Structures are given as structure tokens and as C-alpha cells.
């Protein structure tokens, strides 16, 4: 297995953190970034992972960062925000914010890393989408589902454009995964926290939530040499949500 230089956004907690740790444990060299510097500290202290503060909605910061980044073999774009509501509940600002965080950084970071990947004839792009996307209509996810479907469209177009250049691009589409943001959404949803938590579990046909490490396992596969025949895919990893 060859060692890859991997760049991960939103690695401070949840799925991004598990992916950074998974890639590092698989022997890859990881640069883990997040808006929240404090969350990154334990990645360095406990796992020896290189970290840097990066707010992916800051276009200038992305441009500066991209210049300093050096060669990247694997880009993992994980940052994302769940807006709750139907299309009737989404303001223009909500819709813009969802695209600015969930989609535009994937587009900008792809522009930053692709030229080097094409030159070296090797690269893997991994976007964290969701089952709530073009895979499935999920209630109250109008803005979120739009952005996660857009990520799949972007990923497939990159896969098609650079399929002969050694570049692969795939999306991971998780079902409901036990992360701090899910915990927050459960708390925000109403007074009966246990009932809200059970509602999230009940929508999973397997009757359980996914774990961040389970999502990380697929990211490690997609980054590695064994996945060299896989590109342009939107892979559901969802406890049966899309059966
Ligand atoms: P999380 O809230 O647990 O972690 C999100 C991280 O993103 C935090 O560390 C936060 O500091 C960081 N972040 C927020 N805004 C940022 C910004 N502007 N720039 C850089 N970092 C920023 O989230 P999670 O549940 O692990 O979700 C990660 C991704 O997985 C998201 O894209 C989400 O849509 C997707 N996803 C999650 C689930 C789920 O059930 N948890 C399901 C499907 C898809």
C-alpha cells in the first residue's frame, strides 16, 4: 500500500474526525482541518496528526491554504450543515448558507488539488454527501438534500472529466450517524430527548445508528490503492435507509 497525503475538512469531531484518525491509522499522512482549532488539539496530542484551522466558507482562507498545501493525493470534504425544514421554510439566506458550507468548498478545493493530481496521474476525491440527496427524499431536508445532491453531481462530473487522468471521485452517503451534531439536533427537536433519539433510530431499518468509524472505513478504502477501479459512485452506507 502506498502512503497518501490526505486533506480532510471538518475533522474536529464526528465523521471528519473519525476519517482523519482512520486514514492516519492506515498509514497515510493526514492534514486535518476544522473551523474550531480547539477541537483539533487532541488529534495532534493523541494521534500525532498534523492539523490546521480552516473555515471552509472563507474563500480567501481556502485560496491561501491551497497555495501552502503542497501535493494532495486524497481530498475529503466533510463539512456540512443540516438545515431543518420543507422548501416553504427555507429563506434565501438559509439556502445560500447551506450551499456555501456544504458545496462551494468542495468545488473550490477540487480546483485547488486537481491540477497536481492530474500532473501526478493519481488522486482520490471523497465528498461526504448523505442519503438525503438524489438518493432519497427525506422530510424536512429541502436545503440539505439540495446541497447533498449537488455534491453528487459535482463528484460525478469530476469523475467523468478526469477518468483518464488517474483521478477518481466518489461520494459517501451516510444514513443517520451518531455524532455531536446529531446529538444537538436531537436536543433541539423538542423536550422529550429520548423520544427524538428513538425517532432517528426508528428511521434506520437496522434499528441502530451508524458509528463515525463505520463511515471512516469506507473513506479509508476509497483513499487506498484497492479502490483504484472505483469512480463516480455515490455509495450509501446507511443501515438499510435506502433499501
Ligand atoms: P459534526 O457536527 O459532528 O461535526 C462537524 C464539524 O464541522 C465540527 O467539527 C465543526 O467545527 C466543523 N465545521 C462546521 N462549520 C465549519 C466550517 N465553516 N469550516 C470548517 N469546519 C466546520 O458533524 P457530522 O454529523 O460528523 O457530519 C459531518 C458530515 O457528514 C456533514 O457533511 C454531514 O452533512 C454529513 N452527514 C452526517 C450524517 C449524520 O447522521 N451525522 C448523516 C449523513 C451525512
Report on this structure:
Helices cover 47% and strands 15% of the residues. It has helices at 14-25, 37-47, 59-69, 92-102, 104-120, 142-161, 180-188, 193-202, 212-223, and strands at 5-8, 29-34, 50-53, 74-77, 123-128, 167-174, 234-237. Strands 3-2-1-4-5-6-7 form a 7-stranded parallel sheet, with helices on both faces. Nicotinamide-adenine-dinucleotide binds at residues 9-10, 12-16, 34-36, 39, 54-57, 78-80, 82, 101, 128, 130, 174, 176-177, 179-182. Residues 9-10, 12-16, 34-36, 39, 54-57, 78-80, 82, 101, 128, 130, 174, 176-177, 179-182 line the site of nicotinamide-adenine-dinucleotide.
Compose a concise summary of this entry:
The protein has 243 residues and is α/β, with parallel strands linked by helices. Helices cover 47% and strands 15% of the residues.
Amino acid at each position: 500500500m502506498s502512503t497518501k497525503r490526505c486533506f480532510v475538512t471538518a475533522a474536529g469531531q464526528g465523521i471528519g474526525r473519525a476519517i482523519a484518525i482512520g486514514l492516519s491509522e492506515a498509514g497515510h499522512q493526514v492534514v486535518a482541518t476544522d473551523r474550531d482549532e480547539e477541537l483539533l488539539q487532541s488529534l495532534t496530542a493523541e494521534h500525532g496528526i498534523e492539523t490546521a484551522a480552516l473555515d471552509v466558507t472563507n474563500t480567501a482562507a481556502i485560496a491561501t491554504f491551497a497555495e501552502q498545501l503542497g501535493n494532495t493525493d486524497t481530498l475529503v470534504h466533510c463539512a456540512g450543515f443540516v438545515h431543518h425544514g420543507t422548501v416553504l421554510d427555507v429563506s434565501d439566506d438559509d439556502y445560500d448558507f447551506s450551499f456555501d458550507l456544504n458545496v462551494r468548498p468542495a468545488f473550490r478545493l477540487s480546483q485547488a488539488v486537481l491540477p497536481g493530481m492530474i500532473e501526478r496521474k493519481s488522486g482520490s476525491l471523497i465528498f461526504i454527501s448523505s442519503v438525503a440527496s438524489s438518493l432519497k427524499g427525506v422530510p424536512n431536508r429541502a436545503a440539505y438534500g439540495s446541497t447533498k445532491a449537488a455534491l453528487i453531481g459535482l463528484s460525478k462530473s469530476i469523475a467523468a472529466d478526469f477518468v483518464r487522468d488517474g483521478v477518481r471521485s466518489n461520494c459517501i452517503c451516510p444514513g443517520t450517524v451518531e455524532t455531536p451534531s446529531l446529538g444537538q439536533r436531537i436536543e433541539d427537536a423538542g423536550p422529550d430527548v429520548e423520544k427524538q433519539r428513538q425517532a432517528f433510530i426508528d428511521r434506520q431499518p437496522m434499528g441502530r445508528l451508524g458509528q463515525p468509524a463505520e463511515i471512516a472505513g469506507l473513506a479509508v478504502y476509497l483513499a487506498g490503492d484497492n479502490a483504484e477501479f472505483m469512480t463516480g459512485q455515490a455509495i450509501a452506507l446507511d443501515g438499510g435507509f435506502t433499501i
